Amino acid sequence: MELGKLFHSHRRRSELLAENFRQQIRAGDKSVTVTKVQPLSAAISETITKPRFYTFLFGVFGAIGLVLTMTGVYGLISYTVSQRTQEIGIRMALGANRLSVVGLVLRQGFGLALAGTVIGIALSFALTRMIVSLLFEIRPTDLPTFAGAGDSPAGRSPAGLLRPGAASTKVDPLVALRCE
Fold first, then answer.
1. Is residue 129 part of a domain?
2. Which is more confident, 159 or 20?
């Protein structure tokens, strides 16, 4: 009950202030019409609602993109490791240690992630003109922003590579040589 009274008294006070403001403006210049009077906090909130929504939306899409990137790298490297079972078995039969086999898988996967990152940065650099109206106090081709965007997939791809890399070391050379 008290909250309702407080709301109505606040609203009434705002209406009185707005009417007082209109009267003061009319007293100064009769040709000026005041159509909308609102608190500064409401005006600021109304102004930043759309950019705030776009920022949230871009953040969500960026997170989804990062998850898809890591999943794609994981799937691609897992498939490649399964296709190269014989090669890995031969390498291990000839004396390659587990660390060198994991290194081989990680290098291949990181090379793919790096190539994807370079292509993605080049495409985003070309498409920056589309988002220039959404940026505030930052150039569309800001170097730190592009470095951070490039670091994210390339820096996170080893997390998607560790499991296939570890699985490649479990290849039994005898089983791999008998396959096919």
1. yes
2. 20
